[in-house]
Amino acid sequence: MLALDRVTAVYTGRAVLHEVSLRVAPGEIVAMIGANGSGKSTTLKVITGGLRPVGGQVLLDGEPLEALAPEAVVGRGIALVPEGRRVFPRLTVVENLRIGAYSRADRNRYREDAARVFELFPVLAQRARQEAGTLSGGEQQMLAIGRALMARPRWLLLDEPSLGLAPKVIDVVWDAIQKINADGLAVLLVEQKAFAALQLAARAYVLENGRIVAEGPSATLAADPRVKQAYLSF
Question: Is the model's pLDDT at 47 over the cut of 90?
Answer without folding.
Answer: yes
